Structure formats: structure tokens, C-alpha cells
Amino acid sequence: MSHFVSHLEAAIDGTVIPFGTLANLHNGRPIWVRYHLDRIREAVTPADIAKRPPNLWRYRELLPLPADVEPTTLGEGMTPLLHCARLGKQLGLSNLFVKDESQLPTGSFKSRGMAAAVSMAKWLGVKRVALPTAGNAGGAAAAYAARAGLECYVFMPHDTPIVNQFEPHLYGAKAFRVNGLINDCGKIVKDGADRMGWFDLSTLKEPYRLEGKKTMGLELAEQMNYSLPGTIFYPTGGGTGLIGMWKAFHELAEMQWLSRDPKGSVAFPRLISCQAEGCAPIVRAFDKGERFAELFPNARTVASGLRVPAAVGDFMILDAIRASGGKAATGSEAKIATWMRRASSAEGISICPETAVCFDVLEQMIAAGEVKPDERVVVFNTGAATKYLESLPADLPSIDKDRVDWEMIAG
Ligand SMILES: *Cc1c(COP(=O)(O)O)cnc(C)c1O
Description:
- By secondary structure, the protein is of the alpha/beta class.
- It has a domain at 81-107 and 207-391: Rossmann fold (3-Layer(aba) Sandwich).
- It is built from 13 helices and 13 strands.
- It has a 6-stranded mixed β-sheet with strand order 4-5-13-10-11-12, with helices on both faces. Strands 8-7-6-9 form a 4-stranded parallel β-sheet, sandwiched between helices. Strands 2-1-3 form a 3-stranded antiparallel β-sheet.
- α4 packs parallel to α5 (136-148), α4 (110-123) packs across α8 (208-223) and α8 (208-223) crosses α9.
- The chain starts with a strand and ends in a 30-residue tail after the last strand.
């Protein structure tokens, strides 16, 4: 057998969907990929995986692309897990780690999902893909589409960060600025599907981006020697990162790869879903005890990856947070620039605004006694600060052009 997928499964009602044909949503909701985990356990061991090249395709048995199909790849995956002693000390934590996704192709973790989704779309015969984006997904989709030789259409709000607006065009996509929010862009993609014959690559509207993002969880487990951290802080927009990681941990647990405590149970991490106060639909639903989130009105935040007012996988995010014993919480918009500079300057890691929000939530939880000083804490840095030119925490001073002049950059 060249792959280990058993079937696809509708997340909302468990309907079984056969694998091997194009799939988007089921009853308007996302689809899981399910595997023969018992067979994978017989076919491969952690020691085998440890010997493979350091990219996300090392987890090939746990990915849907058949083994005899070449993936579309830019070498994505196996990002460093960096111990942050200096920043940890400032915060009173001895075991603070950042998993640095800013080092991935196109500068964000979106490349993981697109590597998997574009590889699968190509294998299933797709020639043209389209997606809405609030930021980094457009550049990543365009890059992988270029690599695969597929046509790509990208629709983004006109106030998407400027680098993100240039990127899809650079990679040869047909890129459009839209007077609207990401939901409006999503509608354009949905409504155009029949006429344009494109495959919709929107977050969670096809099953495979989630599988690519799942590899963050697989890598974290491998890097921590298959014993998971105490708490994970993850910036949440559409939620694939969080949902994917939770899926990864459970697949590893079922394969009995994760270490167990003396009573024989696996200690799963608490998932802390971090959102900006200007767009926090998941936090609202979590606080109200709801399983589905309401549309967040007037969504606003410079953390563009978090500007998702309605997530099609809301219940999957909320189920994962609750099952983990974690929570959803907001970080202050006003502190985003401060945290970008504070964390970046303490450790030399290019911290994006989305992750700045996580640090604010982390600090609040430390102050409330909700994080122990020696607990292993992992913060995901989902993208590179440099992609957010207009939000970088610095003001360039004007200099006198008539003579040799210098002024220090402040802010
Ligand atoms: C897309 C994005 C997010 C949100 O990720 P989801 O998995 O969709 O919740 C966070 N940070 C950055 C930098 C992003 O590009």
C-alpha cells in the first residue's frame, strides 16, 4: 500500500467519505483525514523517522500523499525549538521555548499547510486553485502553486499587510485587492468555483492544509523526545494550527509513541488559544460555554492572521481547547508592537504580531498564577516580523539630505 489513509470523516457528524477524490466541505463543515494508525505503527518507528531528512515529509506515513507521488516542496518543516532563557528569566519562567515558524518558506507556518494541500490537489488532477487570505496564506499558496505548475487566484482585503499584497503577484498568482473582509473574499472564491473551475484552498475548506499543519505537533513531540510540554500558546485565526496540533498529539498517543506517566496515561498539553481583543470570536464563545462562535463584528487588529471574524472550524477549535483543559484568551492590541520588540530583542527571533498577542496572554496568565515557573511552555512564532512592514515597532527619523547626518531609530 502506498498510503495509510483509511477514509475521510465529516467533523460535524462523522459521515464517512471515501479518500482519493476532491473534497471540500461536508454540510458546510470541515473534513478530517483518518489513518490506519495500527498499520503505521507496524511500518515505522520514531528511530526510523529520526534518520530522515529534516523536513515535514519525514512524517510521510502520517500524511495523505501516497508514497510513490513526488510532493511539491520547498524544504519546509523541522523548524527549531528554541529555549529562551533570557526572555524566560524576564517573565519568571525557566523552561520557555519558542517554536520558530518564521524560518519557513515564505516566512510563515502557512507553508506547511500549502505544501500538503497543493501536493494533494495536484495529485488529484487540479489545474487551478483559489483562496481568500487575510495575510500569509496567499503568498504561501502562490509559491507552492508556482512550484507545482498550477494556476493560482488570490483574493485579499485591501488593508492586508503590504508585503502580503505584493507576494502572490511575485510568485505569479493572479492577485486581487478586495474592498471587504476575509469573509467577503471567501464568498468571491466560493461563488466563482463553478464559472472559473478552480479548487477552493480556503482554510479548512479542504482536508489537507490541516494535515500539513499537523506536522507542527509531530515535530514538537519529536523535538521533546515524545513527552509533550505543559502548556502551548498558539495565535488563533482560522484555527488549523491548533486543531492540527491536537490531532497530531492524539494520533501519536494512539500509536503509543508518547511517553506515559506511572499510571499509564499520556500528559497532553493545555492549549491556550490566543486572539487579539479586536477580533476574538473564539474567546467569546469559550467564555459563554458555546460550541459554535458568532461572527465577530468590526474585526480589527494589526495581527492580520488573527483577523478571522468567523471560522468554519470554530467547534473543532473549541472542542480541542476544552479537551486539553486550556482556554481562549485575548491579548492587548496596544501591546503588540511592544511585545514584538521585547521578545525579538531579547532572543533575536523575528516575532510576528500574532505571536506578540500570545506573549501578552502568557504574561497575564503568569500574573494570575496560571502558569508555573518551571513548567515547559511553548509559544509558537507563526511568522516573521519582517512581513509586517507597516506595523514594525520603529519610526524612521528624517535626516538632513544636504550634509552627512545621522539620527537614531526610535520607537
Ligand atoms: C494564519 C496565521 C495565523 C492563524 O493561524 P490559524 O491556524 O489559521 O489559526 C497566525 N499567525 C500567522 C502569522 C498567520 O499567518
